[in-house]
Design a protein that fits this description.
Chains: A mainly alpha, B mainly alpha, C alpha/beta
Mean pLDDT of chain B: 81
Largest sheet of chain A: none
Structural class of chain B: mainly alpha
Order of helices and strands of chain B: HHHHHHHHHHHHH
Mean pLDDT of chain A: 82
Number of helices of chain A: 10
Shape of chain A: elongated
Oligomer: heterotrimer
Number of strands of chain B: 0
Helix content of chain A: over 70%
Helix content of chain B: over 70%
Largest sheet of chain B: none
Chain lengths: 275, 319, 471
């Protein structure tokens, strides 16, 4: 890559992706294309049962075969990916925005607001994340919103902690002090000094956070306390197909492979672990 | 001398004690909200679950209602709920009718043995592999263990468990699929958890070792005249161990989550399995008991990590 | 030049080269006999540290070396690194750069020295411990025996590292930038420490950018520039009558040889900033108290004192960034908030690395409604080329960036400028250029300057008067 394009892309603040991240982005793009093109190209309903055609092996008509209720695996996988990624996007956004804002406030202001927000984060961390989500889900079983609130409640802490630590270090740094002395206000200090440092870390946390949101939802589906059938959800599909392992190992393998590729693509996209 | 070793330890233990209190309060409050959000006929359904549908009557349902304090005003009920919790009076299971404490004491042993075997197994696999890989960053072992770790990190514990079942139990027939009893039953669930833990700890150890082996002090220990083994034992091991042990605290989150899922998959009669069952059956006292024990277990494990770090890293004793 | 009798030559280097990764060292030859000292002197980037690494056999991957080495009667090719492993510590000792980082952060000072006695010199455990204790006490580290490196000062860490490196009695000591980051008194201590080796019949090879260190060490000096030997000879002769143009330039950049600045002529005017009865404590320690300061327009006041004595804190108080614990600060009437500015020690740290200089300049112009036209003449005065504006702070040299910092500050027409060691990270030649420009412009604009430096010669040369803070 030449110096000119490097400069150009950073002026428009396009992230510079490593080859690892490019692979992740490519895999994710494939998944997105699959999830949104399938309902558009195939006339397949993830909920339509055809009890005469259960556990059929992949064929031309059903490229991924059918499950134990004769439902199209193709349609169910596409629906499950849409659900997982949609949920991940929603909870990451819900966690990242307050996480970053509160982190900047705590790191910048210090004092009591820092202590207050810090204890709030510690309180959310007192329980392992999935346990907190489980308890919330127990209050409203099978409810998408309980799941979403629980996962976001666990995720925001990481943004908060990383952003707070970085902001604390930057606020006392010569670069910000110099700009302050030159007469720049908080907005400019944030744009020129804080955000360029925070953005790559927030991006990495977002990718890891999306992966953990998807894993958490699948884990709850798998132990039958998450979303309820007949929703097409990866963890739920695994546990439903588990009894038919002998007859249709290919059916059982599909949600595992899809979950693996989704999480792998996000982990690759995240790049280096900031911790 | 002793005062130098224990300096700062008290404050550390105090903050963990505070966390334990927080866990109890959080679990108590969330389960209390749970009792309040139960639909109206819940007392009936729970009574039916306990005595069978034929036996259930108004009196039985009333007993359940009283047990969960469904008939009292919210504020008072909340405080008596927390008061019971404080006295470790966890009530009786709504499903089996046995005291929750009694149920937990059975399950805790099973979960602990699974968790301990898994952690030990992961420590045998992960850190040694990572330390060796970190001595030669970019080498064959480093790169292949990185790929393996990336694959394992993208697979949740239940998927790893499923794959292990398919391989060892169903295809090869070497090990039992699920259940509990002989030592062989331990192998698959413990291995499932251990692989996930080792995937992360091997990379943490690798990065720690690579940092140490590139550090100025490691180079200096060698130019001072120490040989490779002496440098590694005196300056490499402890400095690399500090982040690995500290990261164990983060890994225990994975362990607790893994216990829930893996016990369910392997029908392992532990706390995690019991928690999932209780949630499905809406057995509130059991939910409270199991969540409380798992939360406290998490705090205890983290306390152990804190103490280990405290003795491993002299810098912490001076902070 | 190398009049060697085989028995006394401890280190002999013949036609040593280093290549690769954008650096190259032209063949260099020298020899050190028992009791001799040799100093390699050069600016950063002259490749002098690579010579030390090539002799030790610790060159980073990707660099190749050739030539012949004779180390205490062991002769080997420079490229053959494994054969020198056995000499480390026993015959050949390396005193590392930045001793703070070279000590194991989780091990106390005593065992770090004792392990050399034990494992390298082969003493028994109690003997090793008592020998290490004696070494450290002799170096004045009695109270540091049981401290961790993080609790030692830079000078103390240097002495611990010296004891650890030389405990096994190596006769050849290589010191790589041993005075980096130390203030003047500590620097003199290190020179005395280093001189112990040749005085005891060993050989000392020192690598430094500090002309003063070379002068104090004496012996032979080799001046290097971009991997080439520029000039060599006895210290006395070379450092007083350099023959080559580069050596002359390098030596004339020493503060004591600078030409005098124009005299201060605003004696009568009222002070820009005056403070009385200032006092402040940091971390439970009183840094200074009952301090009175006043600076007049155009006056250059030097601030000196050992590291950690509160020089930067005094600056923060006078700038209004920090509040004093006691006393008060009064500014001249009509002093705007932007009239107080600061220059930083490490130029890259004072800029966000993500934006081009042009962007930063535009921000400033927009914020304060300046005309772009005002910028060009000042840039020219500061010797800043227009094309530099397309680069980011990390992409230009430290000297250029510090001059850009001066440009930004001077555009605001400050009345008071606190310059916190603004040239300590710059090469001597660049340091001289930068400082003389700063002083010239400050005099012109009648801007008062407080200049912090750890170099007493520099302060004595450029400042109208100085303020000494005690430790």
């Amino acid at each position: 890559m030449t110096a000119a394009t490097t400069r150009l892309s950073s002026r428009f603040s396009l992230p510079q992706l490593s080859s690892r991240q490019q692979l992740g982005a490519f895999l994710l793009a494939l998944l997105l294309a699959f999830a949104w093109l399938v309902p558009w190209l195939f006339d397949a309903d993830p909920a339509r049962q055809q009890l005469t055609r259960i556990l059929q092996a992949p064929s031309l008509a059903e490229p991924f075969g059918t499950d134990h209720l004769g439902r199209s695996m193709l349609a169910r996988l596409a629906a499950a990916i849409r659900l997982s990624l949609g949920m991940a996007l929603l909870s990451v956004a819900t966690a990242a925005i307050p996480g970053v804002l509160l982190g900047v406030v705590a790191g910048w202001r210090g004092g009591w607001s820092d202590r207050l927000l810090g204890s709030l984060a510690d309180a959310c961390l007192a329980l392992p994340g999935l346990l907190l989500v489980l308890l919330l889900v127990a209050i409203a079983p099978g409810n998408f919103w309980a799941l979403y609130v629980g996962i976001s409640l666990v995720l925001w802490i990481e943004y908060f902690r990383v952003v707070r630590a970085r902001t604390q270090a930057l606020v006392t740094s010569p670069q910000i002090e110099a700009s302050r002395l030159l007469g720049f206000g908080p907005t400019m200090l944030f744009r020129r000094h804080l955000w360029p440092e925070l953005a790559p870390q927030v991006f990495t946390l977002a990718a890891f956070g999306a992966a953990s949101a998807i894993l958490a939802m699948a884990a709850l589906g798998f132990v039958s306390v998450g979303l309820r059938p007949p929703t097409a959800e990866l963890g739920l599909m695994m546990i439903e197909l588990l009894p038919y392992y002998h007859e249709a190992p290919w059916a059982m393998a599909q949600p595992i492979i899809v979950l693996f590729v989704v999480v792998m693509s996000l982990n690759l996209l995240a790049g280096k672990d900031p911790r | 001398m002793t005062s130098r070793w224990t300096q700062g330890l008290g404050r550390l233990l105090l903050s963990r004690l505070f966390q334990a209190g927080l866990v109890a309060w959080l679990v108590g409050t969330l389960t209390f909200i749970l009792t309040r959000s139960l639909p109206g006929d819940m007392a009936y359904r729970i009574a039916a679950g306990r005595y069978g549908y034929d036996m259930v009557d108004g009196a039985a349902a009333e007993a359940v209602r009283a047990e969960l304090a469904l008939d009292q005003p919210a504020a008072g009920a909340y405080f008596s709920w927390l008061w019971d919790l404080l006295q470790l009076d966890l009530g009786r299971s709504l499903v089996s009718g046995n005291p929750v404490i009694q149920e937990l004491s059975h399950q805790l042993g099973h979960s602990l043995s699974l968790a301990i075997i898994a952690v030990l197994l992961s420590l045998l696999i992960g850190p040694p592999l990572g330390l060796v890989a970190g001595l030669k960053p970019g080498g064959m072992l480093d790169r292949s263990s990185e790929v393996a770790a990336n694959v394992l990190r993208a697979l949740p514990p239940f998927a790893v468990g499923l794959l292990l079942i398919m391989l060892f139990a169903v295809t090869l027939g070497w090990l039992p699929v699920a259940g509990h009893g002989s030592a062989l039953h331990n192998v698959l669930p413990a291995l499932t958890l251990a692989l996930g833990l080792a995937a992360v700890s091997s990379r943490v150890a690798r990065n720690a070792m690579a940092d140490v082996s590139h550090s100025a002090y490691y180079a200096f220990s060698r130019t001072k005249g120490l040989n490779e083994r002496q440098s590694f034992m005196r300056h490499g091991l402890r400095n690399a161990a500090v982040p690995v042990v500290a990261y164990l605290g983060v890994q225990f989150v994975y362990l607790i989550e893994g216990v829930v899922v893996v016990e369910t998959l392997f029908a392992w009669p532990g706390i995690g399995h019991a928690l999932v069952h209780a949630i499905v059956a809406r057995d509130v006292p059991m939910i409270q008991g199991t969540a409380l024990v798992m939360g406290l277990l998490f705090v205890m494990l983290n306390t152990a990590v804190d103490i280990a770090c405290h003795f491993l890293d002299p810098r912490r004793r001076h902070a | 030049m190398t009049s060697m009798t085989l028995t006394t030559t401890l280190l002999s280097v013949e036609a040593l080269t280093v290549d690769g990764d954008g650096v190259s060292i032209a063949p260099i030859t020298f020899a050190l006999e028992a009791g001799q000292r040799l100093t390699l002197l050069g600016e950063t980037g002259s490749g002098k540290s690579l010579i030390a690494q090539a002799i030790m056999g610790t060159l980073p991957n990707g660099l190749t070396t050739s030539g012949q080495l004779t180390i205490a009667s062991h002769t080997c090719a420079a490229a053959d690194t494994t054969s020198r492993r056995a000499l480390w510590g026993r015959t050949l000792a390396l005193l590392p750069q930045e001793p703070w980082n070279a000590l194991d952060p989780t091990m106390r000072a005593l065992p770090q020295v004792a392990e050399t006695h034990r494992y390298v010199a082969g003493r028994s455990k109690p003997d090793a411990n008592s020998a290490a204790r004696d070494d450290l006490i002799q170096l004045g580290l009695e109270e540091g025996l049981n401290k961790l490196p993080g609790e030692l000062s830079g000078g103390m860490a240097q002495r611990v590292a010296f004891a650890a490196a030389s405990a096994a009695g190596a006769s050849i000591v290589i010191a790589d930038e041993p005075t980096k980051g130390l203030d003047a008194p500590r620097r003199d201590d290190v020179v005395k420490l280093l001189a112990k080796t040749p005085d005891a019949g060993g050989a000392l090879l020192t690598i430094t950018h500090d002309i003063d260190v070379a002068r104090r060490l004496g012996g032979e000096v080799i001046i290097l520039r971009q991997g080439q030997v520029v000039e060599r000879g006895p210290a006395e002769q070379l450092l007083n009558q350099p023959q080559t143009e580069y050596a002359q330039r390098l030596l004339s950049a020493e503060p004591s040889r600078w030409s005098d600045p124009s005299p201060f002529s605003h004696q009568a005017s009222s002070p820009v900033v005056s403070a009385s009865g200032l006092g402040i404590a940091r971390g439970g320690r009183q840094l200074f108290s009952e301090l009175d300061v006043a600076v007049r327009p155009g006056e250059i006041v030097g601030v000196v004192g050992p590291s950690g004595c509160g020089k930067s804190t005094l600056g923060d108080i006078l700038l209004g960034v920090a509040k004093p614990g006691a006393g008060s600060v009064i500014y001249q009437d009509g002093m705007p908030r932007l009239g107080r500015q600061k220059l930083y020690q490490d130029p890259p740290a004072a800029f966000s690395p993500h934006w081009t200089l042009n962007q930063l300049l535009e921000d400033l112009l927009r914020r304060h409604q300046f005309e772009y036209r005002a910028v060009a003449p000042l840039m020219e005065r500061l010797g800043l080329n227009q094309h530099l504006l397309d680069r980011r702070p990390g992409e230009i040299s430290g000297g250029e960036l510090q001059r850009f910092a001066i440009l930004r500050v001077l555009l605001l027409k400050p009345r008071f400028l606190f310059a916190d060691e603004p040239t300590s990270r710059l090469d001597p030649v660049t340091q001289q250029q930068t400082l003389s420009l700063l002083i010239e412009l400050a005099r012109e604009q009648a801007c008062a300057v407080m200049l912090v430096s750890h170099d007493p010669a520099l302060i004595a040369k450029v400042c109208d008067r100085q303020l000494a803070l005690a430790g």
